[in-house]
Backbone:
């Protein structure tokens, strides 16, 4: 596939990963709300470290692997189904499962504005990174560019959640995103070589935070 990101593909990528795309990502924090409530994330430095750990060892890393596998196998309905099932099975908590499934289904529904046979190949229950990876590949978006945009959108959403939770301001939030550029670029450049053998993580505190959020009394977010 041509690795040049043409204007049409760029516009679609910008639309799909825009905050305005109707997938409801604003409603989820990926367990960050619990981390803030339990004082694991207290300020912008903590938030930057938290997101960096997710990028290298946690949910962002595994999402990148699932994204890359779906991008590579977008023409194979059986492979997409198996990847989707694996992605859902790896959800570390009920809320993480609901989050990735809700976003995945909403993404497929919204992406139908750009009709393509890949939408029929995707299973009805599909995690978010699998949905975006497969759709991006079907529309000719290079793997590394698509994954970079996906990871940047995920980090941006987490920073936005952090701002709403009061652990940083907007200026510091932008600094966090700037500080994550290297990690995002490094991971996205590995996209062509990432396979399911690379799945795994060590962000234990983040997984525990996600579990604790399920019983948190006062909440702004659904996860």
Residues:
């Amino acid at each position: 596939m041509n690795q040049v990101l043409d204007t049409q593909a760029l516009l679609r990528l910008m639309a799909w990963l825009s905050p305005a795309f109707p997938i409801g990502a604003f409603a989820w924090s990926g367990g960050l709300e619990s981390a803030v409530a339990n004082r694991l994330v207290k300020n912008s430095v903590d938030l930057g470290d938290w997101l960096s750990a997710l990028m290298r060892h946690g949910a962002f890393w595994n999402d990148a692997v699932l994204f890359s596998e779906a991008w590579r196998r977008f023409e194979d309905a059986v492979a997409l189904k198996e990847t989707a099932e694996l992605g859902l099975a790896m959800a570390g908590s009920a809320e993480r499962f609901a989050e990735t499934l809700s976003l995945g289904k909403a993404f497929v529904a919204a992406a139908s504005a750009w009709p393509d046979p890949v939408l029929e190949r995707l299973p009805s229950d599909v995690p978010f990174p699998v949905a975006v990876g497969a759709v991006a590949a079907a529309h000719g978006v290079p793997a590394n560019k698509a994954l970079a945009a996906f990871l940047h959108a995920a980090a941006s959403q987490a920073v936005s959640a952090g701002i709403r939770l009061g652990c940083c301001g907007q200026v510091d939030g932008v600094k966090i995103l700037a500080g994550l550029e290297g990690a995002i670029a490094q991971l996205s450049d590995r996209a062509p070589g990432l396979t399911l053998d690379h799945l795994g993580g060590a962000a234990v505190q983040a997984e525990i935070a996600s579990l604790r959020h399920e019983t948190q009394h006062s909440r702004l977010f659904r996860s």
Observations:
- The chain has eleven helices and no strands.
- The first helix runs from residue 7 to 16.
- The mean pLDDT is 95.
- The radius of gyration is 16 Å.
